[in-house]
From TrEMBL:
Any Pfam family the entry gives: CoA_transf_3
GO molecular function, one term: transferase activity
Name recorded for this polypeptide: CoA transferase
Assigned EC number: 2.8.3.-
Top-level taxon of the source organism: Bacteria
Organism lineage: Bacteria, Bacillati, Actinomycetota, Actinomycetes, Mycobacteriales
Amino acid sequence: MGVLDGVRVLDYGRFIAAPWCAALLADMGADVIRVEKREGGEDRWVQSVAEGGEGGTFLQCNRNKRSLTLDSTTDEGKEITRKLAAGADIVVANMPAAGMRSSGLDYETLRAVKPDIILASATAYGEGGPYSDRIGFDGAGQVMSGAVYRQGLPDQPIRTVVPYADFGTALTLTIGVMMALFHRDRTGQGQHVEGALLPTALMLSNAFLIERELLGTDKPRMGNQGTSVAPCDLYRTRDDGWVLLQVAGPPMFKRWCRLVGRPELFDDPRFANDDLRWQHGDVLNDIMAQWCADKTKAEVLERLEAAKLPAAPMHSTQEVLDDPHVQAMGFLQRVPFPGAPRDVPIIETPFRMSATPGQIRRRAPLLGEHTDEILGEIGYTGDQVARLRDRQVI
């Protein structure tokens, strides 16, 4: 039995921030209904991996959900939205405020239908400022947070390909939803929970901003090297592998000095603390690069592990799939999907609970797969559903 059994969620989300929030709620037992346009949401078809056109991120972010197609701009569609909201505990959406109002998904409209409802909305910039009506994807949060300014090569800032602002917003939004459920259980009151890409990205890069405000400086872009410690970098090995090492603090630095056969470096005043080691990082990183150059990746990792130094291999995507720890831990669950050439490796619930663990109970839904079933649950007969389909409402 899931901790959220009996909780119903309407998911009007697209792409990542809102859908992944709803997926986590579904993992924990909530009944999540994904409501999308009759032709399918735009996010369904991005990065296609299945014969039907469904994309990889869609398969990840929409497991454990049922699919209802609906034209919510029609009068009949709006009535269906009201009936769905009347039986829901949580509505999750990501669109600008104007779009929320026009779809009847703004908090005041939803609260009039169901006074204790919880609305969870994800936007690019947050509501109440001069950018609130702008749309934006993950990259907007990255580049406006100061993070990209600090990462990349000296003459080339580089945005991170992993959409961390999107997934981070999903996580913070999920935390907010759970807090709102806890509050509702205590008081009987619903509320509006907001998450946004920019403040999420600011949270993740906050230390850079503190450093700038208090010291008046920005450290330069340094590729894969550390932002405040050394040696720290990705180092190439003899067999063309790459290994990450991050050394911080005197005990770790002393072990590293012994490992590379340079014990005298520990007493060198240039390397007396982390800040000084970072300032002279080129010296330390060059030593480490030379030490790795005549060893295989396996040899480098074995010696670093023996020295109790934090190191990790750079994996290709195939190496991730083949990794024995990833397999033993069951981090990636193989889930069948129609039209996929093989079972889909989907990340499990990204936290584990001993008594009420999350589960992937069902694959992501096909477009409109559960429309008839869901409408039947809110009182529509088979004939009424057929007429709605004839009139292209569903």
